[in-house]
Design a protein that fits this description.
By secondary structure, chain A is mainly β. Chain A is built from eleven helices and 63 strands. The chains are: A mainly beta (1139), B mainly alpha (562). The interface between A and B is large, with 119 and 113 residues.
Chain lengths: 1139, 562
């Protein structure tokens, strides 16, 4: 039956063929560049046909054309295409002109259709492969940073971590907002959240799978930013599409071999700022004033997290870790600081990428085979990353009209250890940053207790030394070297992706493409933790196996024809997508009895009682049908109309089918009215589109999950989230308008876009009051609107034969606002921390950061109005500093999104020298640093010492007057930044204070007023706390506003030098077979300036934690906690040789 | 033309066939293979869930939670402002309790569908306990309108609050219903999986006793506010032993042993799975509890706490101001004088602290006095090595048994026979017919508690002491009940609120000059159910200690205390 239909179909299609015979004419010639070089590999096609050849190594070509009036189209990467009429000639010599910004540039658009950029009614960002490889990056996404307007790239952690790409701002509240990646038509699985936690507080980010793509294989990247561009990709394109075209053998002439070798060395140079003044302890005790243990010396409690112990480098003698001398006796030693601890811990990172490619092309066959290898050694000891990939792209002309193209890629990537980026646990950076500088980090390099290798780490501990000389070792803290070396989170991912495609040029106008795409990977994550890690003392072993597969089968029938002034491109096609994924995991229980035999990492070495295991799988399918009509009139007006219908398995049958159209218009004013030869392009464009979106599998009915067993008894629990069985698809409607201008023969170009998008029926989880029995409910409601602008301006101020200077600026600004949610719900919580969080109310911009409010006098008639209310012990009346954050009435202190981003790329070439640099500037937005909140609450930073107010030489009443006189600064400060007067020592402004029988100068107070409200709501003053007699003092140590997030909220503005490179084109060495070769020197990701100035890269403000949205670990945006790697200066060398 | 028509027909038919089969296929793809459909779940699979989650959270809060500090059992040497200084001016969330209640409700409904009455009765008891805990702690709360979110109406999503009185009366009715459901012999029930019943190994009789004993507890809770109702309730139970069987021995106690295979099924704050030991070492004896246990020469003191490692003595035997000889630290009186140190005295220590003096305690068992320091408590009693959350050689740590993940004495206790006897002693003391004399119940209670802690042999010497021997006062009953309810601090707190006993000293460095009376409503409930929250807090009555908190304060009085 099937066969018959096919036959009938083919017969029908064949009968449409009109075969015309022409007399064949031979044309030959030579192609040169405007610099006078012979150009090999230039593609020459007879216009309106699929007949084409390429120039040979000397730039020569020869082609048969059907008529003397035929037109030849010459095209070459980086050159302006030319159409030349044969006009009866038999020799046609052509000089190709370098295109700066390429009026006639061809870009790849949805469904892989190549289009002239000028004909598009929407904004498409492009990056050439060359720009991606100038400077080596582990993850190709990092190479895109700052190069395309509207695109924000940020990494979630250190090298090898996941990299987030958000196009035109986050429009979904529940997803990670990552765009769809399509490589040569193959949709690639990529998610931001790749964190797995095996072993207590051991969260490791294994990096996103998109890093499996080798940048060296990329020919070009097109970024379809808005729905207008992406509508044809449907459901998954709501966040934009990144189309990656890989290199093929098409352009080579004969056998070509190219070799690249790239090595980059990274040296850390800047660390977070911590003081090196006080040792561990609660107060700056001195030899005379210290807890009297009858031993004559103070014992430094290294396990105590506070860093306000005795001052270092003052000659004080103390008992300090490792406490014992060579004879095994406890011995007092001088307390000195080791300011280079951070520097000494880190190593030099090395990343080496080497590869070769082989290309060949003939009339019938062309192929490109490449191999790449990447090896990385991180700056944290014992961290690494490696990748091997092979790809083969080939094309084979079966008969003249039938071409078979295939692509096959295999990538094997892995690491022996990805250091944990979580907090409170195995993260070696946290352990490092928490070790007080009275310890020399180099003393910790031998991280096993002698004689207990493999069993007991040698971590700093506090000697609980009794007056009688007896002691106990208490409060051991993790040795960062132990964590780095003996907590191993390895992974291995084998990924295969590729496609097979048959292209049948039925007539010159009509073609049919049928294709099968496949992407799958298997990833194994394995964790081994040696015994004595404080969080999981008995050792940990765990395995996670993941498998993901996506298959797409599609076809496309395309029709192209030009009728006089009207060109018509019409396509229709269909697609079936199928996704399958499964996970299974087996591991030791968290904080359980660990492994039976220490150091043997096998599943059989886990006692049955201590096993934790689980498995799960999912499937999803979408059928789609789509069509596209594109009309062009006189090269001046282009109209595109698309339509698509999807049938998704994740929606209920009655809402499964959803249809969405789009339309866009492009008008080339320069082709409509004469604008002179100064204007090569003046285009205005506009587009309108709808995109439907489904949801994840199994979001209609919840199932019961098994919890950890109680002994042998199974425990089942109902889900706390209510699902919605009659979910509807989300619909995003958007429009954009823009203009493109090219002047002075491509020497100057400008383009700009304004867009608006409205996202309706968002499928999101909303918080219910716990008394309803449920914590959240899936809803299908709301309206989220985004608007934004994108600009780019660039040009070549200098351009002559030897010297060329290009510069390009890109600007993006986006605002996303919640317009509506659902009845009874007027805000959404993205995450919470301390008393604050990211809470967005209806009417506000997404990304608001909110915080607790200080209790202040609220009585406009009172002279104390606005002053902090203090209790009789000297605390903020709400104590612990906290008044409530009411989720519903948030006190907004910031927003984690930028006001705008600005990128700048510049290139300078002089003869054989090339210089390139790329900068990135972020303006606006804030982030919360839990690293600082935790560090400062334990008084680890100089910033905190400096932040307390020092008022010298004033007696009590004078001080009170001084504070009142400066009330704006000390009593009514902006926002809720509280003021603390005093400091840890007298020279820091501290007051004399006695506690637990010991008197020191570490007293502080918070200026404010004590009182209450009377029955009429009038504030009644009881006492002023202004440093006068009677003001209660508190130890400096106790005065951190733990519950205020604002104290640790910083501006996220920065300027980064993303990339800088100098390259040199080596002289021709054809005698030894080398066609060309270049060598370059580069650096990347150099943070030039941050507004916060605290040694943290604001771009890594991500924290992997359970968030408010969805279950499991997610990345919370706008907050970081020990996700702080030192800043580095990488230096790289790249060598490129083509044979 | 004919051919075209035929082709078209074939096309249409094919399309319909393909589309229909695709549609079915898509529906099948979305069937979740990863869990059990709640509509068909075996009720026994949810029985352990609601028992262990209830027992774990109750013992955790009553052993090391803030209420254990307020009730003077323990103090912390770090991270303990809520526990040491009743810094309770922050919300406490009830989502854990309502989560258990959601599961209990589903279990009840499934058991009902399956005709599994034992599980239905068990679910009712657990439900009643959790609602009582909510009423005990917060006051008014959603009860009749709670847990209905799946019904989908606005009033289901945002439940109105019931009065505290209505909740207590409601759960007493529910417990009566459980008493009826559970009144049949074991063999009359179907589908009992004995192993799943972590508390009573599938015994309907024991669950029935628990239901009635809890009823006694909640009647007593209402004894001041609704004396006639409480009296009638208790007397009804005590006069119908067959219809309302209650606990009659320690074997009836509602206790749960721990598995001890990992932190999540082990005794809280153990050191078996916490290598840093910090959670264990920070928890130390409180002076208020110590004072009474030492006065009473209570044999349980030694079971629960360790003596100090290094005792402090005041002595002029040595020339040094401060010296350790043979494991004792000696301070010279003039050195103490010069440094403004004074011996701890239970009657004057508050004044001493207010006068800026440093307290020194020279006993064998030492406890940190509640809210006695602005610091974190780690420097107390001249600790030579103050560490946040660290040990203190001059303060009593918990007994080493509490380092273990499980053990014969490490039980989560919901309610005990000892408590039952104390309830009845109090009822009798109030003059109600409690099936025995107040002295009888008082003595039975003490005996039961001593037996529970393995020191039953000391009973006769203990009970004959003047301070222990029954003198007919309510105070004596409640003080003994307070001792017996070690690790059941939440219940002691409820008793103290009702009776004012034991008499607790309010530390001078606490947040307020009074102990907290209730929990503030949780932030999520407050924000997400704001209208109902606002009308509920109107019934709260502020006290002087409410200060600037507004009505919803931990120092405001709810109905039960008004």
């Amino acid at each position: 039956m099937k066969k018959r239909i096919l036959k009938t179909l083919f017969f029908g299609l064949f009968s449409l063929l009109t075969v015309t015979l022409y007399a064949q004419i031979n044309v030959s010639g030579t192609v040169k560049s405007d610099a006078g070089e012979l150009l090999p590999g230039v593609s020459i096609v007879v216009k309106g046909t699929s007949t084409g050849v390429i120039t040979d190594i000397d730039g020569n070509f020869s082609i048969s054309v059907p008529s003397a009036q035929s037109v030849l189209v010459f095209s070459f990467v980086g050159m302006q295409p030319q159409e030349i009429s044969v006009n009866g000639r038999s020799t046609v010599n052509v000089t190709m002109v370098t295109s700066t910004f390429g009026v006639d540039e061809v870009v790849v658009t949805a469904l892989g259709i190549s289009r002239e950029k000028k004909s598009l009614g929407y904004s498409v960002g492009e990056v050439e492969g060359e720009e991606l490889t100038r400077v080596a990056q582990e993850n190709v996404l990092n190479s895109l940073a700052g190069k395309v307007s509207g695109v924000q790239i940020s990494s979630t952690g250190t090298a090898g971590s996941s990299v987030s790409m958000v196009i035109r701002g986050a429009s979904s509240l529940t997803s990670d907002n990552q765009p769809l990646f399509v490589v040569d038509g193959i949709p690639m699985n990529n998610t931001l959240n790749n964190v797995t936690e095996i072993g207590r507080d051991n969260k490791a980010d294994y990096g996103n799978a998109i890093s499996d793509i080798s940048p060296e294989n990329i020919e070009s990247v097109s970024i379809l930013k808005g729905p207008s561009a992406a509508a044809l990709y449907g459901s998954r394109a709501g966040n934009g599409v990144v189309l990656i075209t890989t290199k093929s053998g098409k352009k080579s002439q004969g056998l070509g071999v190219s070799i690249t070798s790239n090595t980059v060395v990274e040296s850390p140079y800047k660390y977070i700022k911590k003081h090196t003044r006080f040792a561990n302890g609660q107060r700056p005790f001195t030899q005379e004033n210290r807890p009297n243990n009858g031993l004559g010396y103070y014992v430094v409690p290294v396990g105590d997290s506070y860093w306000v112990g005795p001052e270092m480098d003052k000659g004080m003698m103390v008992y300090q870790w490792p406490y014992f001398n060579a004879n095994g006796e406890v011995e007092a030693t001088p307390l000195v600081s080791h300011p280079d601890n951070f520097k000494d811990f880190f190593e030099t990172g090395v990343t080496s990428t080497n590869g070769f490619s082989l290309t060949n092309a003939s009339e019938k066959v062309n192929y490109r085979l490449s191999y790449d290898n990447m090896v990385n050694k991180g700056i944290i000891p014992n961290s690494d990353l490696n990748k091997n990939s092979i790809s083969l792209n080939s094309s084979f002309k079966i008969v003249d009209d039938l071409t078979f193209t295939s692509s096959f890629n295999y990538t094997s990537s892995g690491a022996d250890n990805r250091p944990s980026t979580g907090n409170r646990g195995t993260n070696p950076l946290q352990a490092l940053y928490d070790i007080n500088p009275h310890i020399d980090i180099n003393d910790l390099k031998d991280y096993w207790e002698p004689g207990q290798e493999g069993l007991q780490q040698r971590g700093p501990y506090t000697l609980d030394l009794q007056p009688d000389g007896s002691y106990e070792k208490v409060d051991m803290i993790n040795n960062p070297y132990f964590l780095a070396n003996e907590v191993n989170n390895s992974f291995k991912r084998d990924r295969v992706y590729g496609n097979a495609k048959l292209n049948w040029q039925i007539t010159p106008e009509l073609s049919l493409m049928a294709r099968y795409n496949h992407d799958q990977f298997h990833e194994k994550r394995e964790t081994k933790i040696a015994p004595s890690y404080t969080g999981d003392a008995n050792g940990v072993y765990g395995l996670v196996n993941m498998y993901r597969r996506e298959q797409n089968t599609d076809f496309l029938l395309a029709y192209n024809k030009t009728f006089n002034d009207l060109s018509v491109n019409a396509s229709a096609g269909g697609n079936y997508m199928y996704q399958y994924g499964d996970n299974n995991s087996v591991q030791t229980k968290n904080r359980g009895s660990g492994l039976i035999v220490p150091g043997i990492y096998t599943l059989s070495n886990i006692a049955p009682d201590n096993l934790q295991y689980g498995s799960g799988s999912y499937q999803k399918g979408i059928y789609s049908a789509y069509g596209l009509v594109s009309l062009g009139y006189r090269d001046a007006v282009y109209l595109d109309i698309t339509a698509r219908n999807d049938w998704s398995s994740t929606l209920p049958a009655e809402n499964r089918s959803y249809f969405y159209p789009s339309a866009s218009l492009s008008m080339l004013l320069n082709n409509m009215i004469d604008m002179g030869d100064k204007v090569s392009l003046a285009k205005i464009r506009g587009g309108w589109a709808m995109v439907g979106n489904d949801t994840d599998p199994y979001k209609l009915m919840s199932v019961m999950q098994k919890q950890e067993s109680w002994g042998n008894e199974t425990q089942m629990s109902t889900s706390g989230t209510l699902l919605l069985p009659d979910l509807k698809p989300e619909i995003q409607t958007s429009w954009e308008i823009g203009a493109d201008l090219e002047l002075f023969n491509g020497r100057l170009h400008l383009d700009g876009t304004y867009y608006q998008a409205e996202n309706e029926n968002q499928i999101l989880s909303i918080g219910l009051p716990p008394s309803s029995g449920y914590t959240g409910k899936q809803i299908n409601a709301g309206l989220i609107s985004s608007k934004g602008t994108e600009f780019s301006i660039g040009g070549s101020p200098i351009k002559n034969k030897d010297l060329e200077w290009n510069v390009n600026f890109v600007y993006s600004k986006n605002r996303t606002r919640i317009e509506e949610l659902s009845e009874g719900f007027d805000y959404i919580v993205l995450w919470t921390d301390a008393k604050g969080g990211a809470v967005t109310r209806v009417g506000d911009e997404i990304g608001q950061i909110v915080d607790a409010k200080m209790v202040r006098v609220n009585d406009p008639g009172s002279p104390y109005n606005g002053w902090p209310i203090i209790d009789d012990e000297g605390w903020d009346d709400a104590d612990g500093w906290q008044t409530v954050i009411n989720e519903g009435e948030p006190n907004v202190i910031g927003n984690f999104n930028p006001d705008f981003m600005l990128g700048m790329q510049t290139g300078l070439s002089y003869k054989k020298w090339n210089f390139n640099a790329s900068f990135d500037w972020r303006v606006g937005g804030q982030f919360v640093s839990q690293t600082f909140r935790y560090g400062e609450s334990d008084l680890h930073t100089q910033r905190w010492i400096d932040r307390t107010v020092k008022i010298n030489n004033l007696s009590g009443s004078e001080m009170a007057q001084y504070l009142k006189d400066n009330a704006d600064k000390y009593l009514l400060p902006d926002g809720d930044f509280y003021v603390v007067v005093g400091g840890p020592t007298s020279d820091a402004g501290g007051f004399q204070h006695t506690e637990d029988g010991i008197t020191l100068n570490d007293g502080v107070f918070m200026p404010g007023v004590e009182g209450y409200y009377d029955d009429n709501g009038k504030f009644v003053m009881e006492a002023e706390h202004l440093g006068d007699t009677g003001t209660p003092l508190i130890r400096y140590q106790d005065f951190y506003g733990w519950s205020y997030t604002e104290t640790a909220t910083f501006d996220a503005d920065y300027i980064k030098l993303r990339e800088i490179s100098v390259s040199y084109q080596l002289p021709s060495m054809k005698s030894i077979g080398i066609q060309n070769a270049s060598v370059s020197l580069y650096s990347r990701n150099i943070i030039l300036w941050t507004k916060a100035g605290i040694g943290i890269d604001p771009e890594t403000a991500f924290q992997s934690e359970s968030g408010a949205q969805g279950s499991g670990i997610q990345f919370k945006q706008g907050i970081e906690r020990y996700n702080v790697s030192p800043w580095t200066i990488p230096v790289g060398v790249k060598l490129n040789i083509n044979f | 033309m004919k051919l075209m028509k035929a082709l078209f027909k074939i096309f249409v038919v094919l399309s319909v066939v393909i589309f229909t089969s695709c549609n079915e296929q898509l529906t099948e793809l979305n069937v979740n293979p990863n869990g059990v459909d709640p509509a068909i779940v075996n009720p026994n699979l949810m029985v352990p869930t609601i028992i262990t989650s209830t027992m774990k959270s109750y013992v955790d809060f009553s052993y090391q939670g803030d209420v254990a500090g307020v009730m003077n059992y323990v103090q912390k040497s770090g991270w303990g402002s809520g526990l040491n200084k009743y810094d309770w001016n922050s919300e406490r969330d009830w989502s854990g309790n309502y989560g258990i209640l959601r599961n209990a409700k589903h279990l009840y409904e499934r058991a009902d569908e399956e005709g599994m009455e034992f599980q239905k009765g068990l679910a009712t008891v657990i439900r009643a306990f959790n609602f009582a805990y909510i009423a005990d702690s917060w006051g008014d709360a959603p009860y009749t309108a709670a847990l209905n979110a799946p019904n989908g109406e606005q009033e289901d999503l945002f439940p109105k609050f019931d009065t505290q009185e209505a909740i207590y009366k409601g759960i007493i009715e529910e417990l009566k219903e459980a008493n009826t459901i559970l009144s049949k012999p074991f063999g009359a029930y179907t589908g009992i999986n004995q192993g799943a019943d972590i508390l009573y190994n599938g015994s309907p009789e024991k669950w029935r006793k628990l239901a009635n004993t809890l009823m006694l507890r909640y009647y007593l809770r209402l004894s001041v506010k609704l004396p006639a109702y409480a009296k009638a309730g208790i007397e009804e139970i005590m006069s119908n032993a067959n219809q309302f069987p209650i606990f009659t021995s320690n074997a009836d106690d509602a206790t749960m042993d721990f598995i001890g295979s990992s932190d999540s099924d082990a005794w809280p704050a153990n050191t078996t799975f916490d290598a840093s030991q910090s959670n264990f070492t920070r928890l130390q004896l409180c002076a208020g509890f110590r004072d009474v246990l030492v006065d009473y020469k209570d044999p349980r003191l030694d079971v629960w706490f360790n003596p100090v490692k290094t005792q402090i003595q005041v002595s002029t035997d040595y020339p040094e101001d401060d010296i350790v000889v043979d494991g004792v630290r000696y301070l010279r009186p003039e050195y103490m004088e010069a440094n403004n140190m004074v011996l701890y005295n239970r009657n004057t220590w508050v004044d001493d602290v207010n006068a800026g003096k440093t307290l020194v305690d020279t006993a064998v068992f030492v406890g940190l006095p509640i809210a006695s320091t602005t610091g974190d408590g780690s420097g107390w009693n001249l600790n030579p090595n103050p560490i946040q959350g660290g040990p203190n050689p001059h303060n009593s740590a918990l007994d080493d048994i509490y380092k273990n993940a499980k053990g014969p004495l490490l039980k989560a206790r919901l309610i005990s026979y000892a408590e039952t006897c104390f309830i009845l002693a109090e009822a009798a003391q109030r003059g109600w017919a409690a099936g025995g004399s107040q002295k009888d119940w008082y003595e039975k209670a003490i005996k039961a508690s001593l037996d529970n802690w393995g020191v039953g042999s000391s009973y006769s010497s203990y009970i004959t002491q003047q301070v222990v021997s029954y003198d007919g006062t309510l105070q004596q009953i409640i003080v003994q009940k307070w001792i017996a309810n070690w690790t059941v601090a939440h219940e002691s707190w409820c008793d103290w609120r009702r009776t004012g006993f034991p008499t607790l000293t309010v530390g001078p460095k606490g947040l307020r000059e009074a102990m907290p009376l209730r929990f503030e409503y949780g932030g999520t409930e407050k924000a997400r159910n704001n209208d109902n929250y606002l009308s509920a807090i109107r019934s709260l009555v502020e006290t002087p200690a409410t200060a600037t908190d507004g009505k919803d304060s931990s120092w405001s009085k709810f109905w039960l205390l008004q």
